[in-house]
């Protein structure tokens, strides 16, 4: 397994997941209390797959520092996503907008760091 392949795969999975996250945020900020469950689950599964791949790579082959920083931020974002799902979505309670924004903000910064790490690994 090569680092650049892991980074590219994780970046691709997270890019698709981010589209779902954006759609869910638009749904919430349009006035609906929560997005459809299938979309939340797809977003979570894609993000978890990418996160698992990054953790595996970090433990086995190592990751560049930018990717390590992204991994830490993704772990924080994932914690927020789990809280949103278990404490609000599954209980049919409206998602707190501030928490949606915090989750998204942390994930976006992590994604930008991962994108930079992927770009650097692919062009070195």
Automatic annotation (TrEMBL):
It comes from Undibacterium arcticum. The keyword Transmembrane applies. It comes from the Bacteria. Keywords: Membrane, Transmembrane, Transmembrane helix. The chain crosses the membrane at residues 6-27, 39-59, 65-86, 98-121. This is Uncharacterized protein.
């Amino acid at each position: 397994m090569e680092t650049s392949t892991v980074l590219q795969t994780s970046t691709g999975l997270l890019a698709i997941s981010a589209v779902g996250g954006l759609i869910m945020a638009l749904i919430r900020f349009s006035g609906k209390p929560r997005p459809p469950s299938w979309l939340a689950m797809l977003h979570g599964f894609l993000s978890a797959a990418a996160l698992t791949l990054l953790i595996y790579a970090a433990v086995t082959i190592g990751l560049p520092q930018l990717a390590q920083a992204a991994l830490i931020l993704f772990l924080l974002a994932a914690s927020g996503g789990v809280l949103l799902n278990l404490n609000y979505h599954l209980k049919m309670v409206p998602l707190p907008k501030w928490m949606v924004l915090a989750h998204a903000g942390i994930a976006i910064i992590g994604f930008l760091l991962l994108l930079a790490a992927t770009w650097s690994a692919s062009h070195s």
